[in-house]
Amino acid sequence: MKILTVDIGNTCIKGSIFEDSRVLDSCLLEERDAELLRPLIDKYEPDGAIYCCVGGNAEDFVGDLERICGRHVMCFSHLSRLPIRVNYKSFSTLGLDRIAAAVGALSNCRNALVVDAGTAVTLDLVTEGEFRGGNISPGLRLRLRSLNHYTSRLPLVNPNGVTPRLGFDTETAIRSGVVNGIVSEIVSTFRDASENVDALELLLTGGDADFFAPLLEQEGLKPQTDHSLVGMGLEQIYLLNIR
User: Residues 6 or more apart from 46 whose CB is under 8 A from it?
Assistant: First the structure.
């Protein structure tokens, strides 16, 4: 079966076509217009579709998507059946994208720290078929924009550029503080978790995954970047819930 997965995030929307846990094609939408998914749908004619949404109300978007697909689009919710156990006290507030990414991660490995580097940075520990919790902090660009917005003198800094351990001017001080701060969060969390979890792997996804991968390698880690984790998880959740 070819399955269309749609991840509606805070900043953009990712549509992907999966078949047997393999991504065939995908596209990234920067505006909430379901018509932009039509080329993907017309090309692959998916047998089913599922979406998750963390970025506000998606009712109109999904309605248009169903019209284009010519079929019902399954909504992944906290009531959906899951192929993993979730150990999280406030399950009803756990981000659906975090759950889907955890499901996708366990299709590739037994134990993983899943880092989704997007508008927010989430670090979630998934071991032996169980979501064990994680952390949430502001993402790369959110931190940079916040420093500019909530101060009177700090400029908006591009994340790309010289990033020393200690900044030598205001621009590098901001960039180094933000970038190195996120890298330190990931390194510290991974190393702490590794003390109690065997063969723990570091999986990166999200818009800034490629930005952080080489920086984490410089810290001695071996991250694996997979931009399809959420979609892969949605595919598995869809197949489980139609049985």
Answer: 2, 3, 4, 17, 69
